[in-house]
Amino acid sequence: MRRLMLILIALLVMLPSMASAADVVRDTPAVVSPGAEFNVTLTISGIQVGGVVETLPAGFTFVSTDYPWYNISGQKVAFAIVNSTRIVYTVKAPSGGSGAFTGLYEELLDESNGSIASTTVTVKTSSSGSEAVESSVVPTISVPVPSIGAGERKSISLPSEARGDHVCFTSLDIAARDEVHPEVMKVEVYDVAPAGVEAPRYQKVLGYLRITTGLEDAVESVHIHFKVKTSSIQHPENVVLLRWDGAWTPLDTSYVGEENGYYVFEAKSPGLSLYAVAETAGSSVESSRTSTESVSSNATATTSGETAGAGAEKTPGFGALLAVLCITGIALSHRRR
Hints:
- It is a single chain.
- 15% of the residues lie in helices and 45% in strands.
- By secondary structure, it is α+β, with helices and mostly antiparallel strands.
- The chain folds into two domains: 2-124 and 283-336, Immunoglobulin-like (Sandwich), CATH 2.60.40.740; 137-191 and 203-280, Chondroitinase Ac, Chain A, domain 3.
- The chain has a six-stranded mixed sheet with strand order 2-10-9-4-7-6. The protein has a six-stranded antiparallel sheet with strand order 11-14-15-21-17-18, with no helix packed on it.
- The longest helix is centred in the last third of the chain and has 19 residues, at 318-336.
- The protein is elongated and about 70 Å long.
């Protein structure tokens, strides 16, 4: 262990100094669907070389991360920090209940450490009773539709209320097959699947949009513009809009770019209906997970069962694990230069 720390200290002299106070803030959705996958985002400041140990609540399962230096032991996930400011990892929710995410952090340079404020995530079921009624009731937004000539295309802006916890729907471009007369369409946004509709399987669902109108026969196609919080997904290229027509069908979805904390998308649909925004488990996610697991396979696992908030120095193996991971991270970082 002493030799390990000497190697770490030798590598640390290659890094610039950092004076700001250490802090880590966790961001999670407050409510998720049973079995849903969701992202946990850690925003890190003031830690040049150190680490974080996250403790997942019982029933919640670690799925993946793109972050290269981590190790898993039971419900604990340890991350080595080498000038990192953001870590995102994906967790799968249980079938019900709620749980609190807790964590510890440590800065190895000045030996400071602390606790990350706990975050509670509730799994909201819609099986029966008043809870099911509550989850199915969402505000209905009335959106005026102007007249559209046959063969014409017009853009309709959606109000700011057309948003959920992760997704904001911004506008619709409607191409008319036949003449469209002015009317009002109904727009509803859900964070969980509406009653009577099965959520898409094997996908991380971020939100739903339902459009109710009598224009279906007159519409040739519709382009749906929406944006997703950058903290909610890891791979914008894997986001897809799905259309419900008795079954979920993926639509042609394009990633446009990033603006003001959101990833921006556009999708083309043959008509107006119920939609779901999902992040699929693309190959880039799987290959990244494989590579990160190989990097961390030689690290010493942290010991589970420690009391959350007891201080990073009280987690057995914490320093050794961070030293191993940090040496790996620093070496790889300098190799790239």
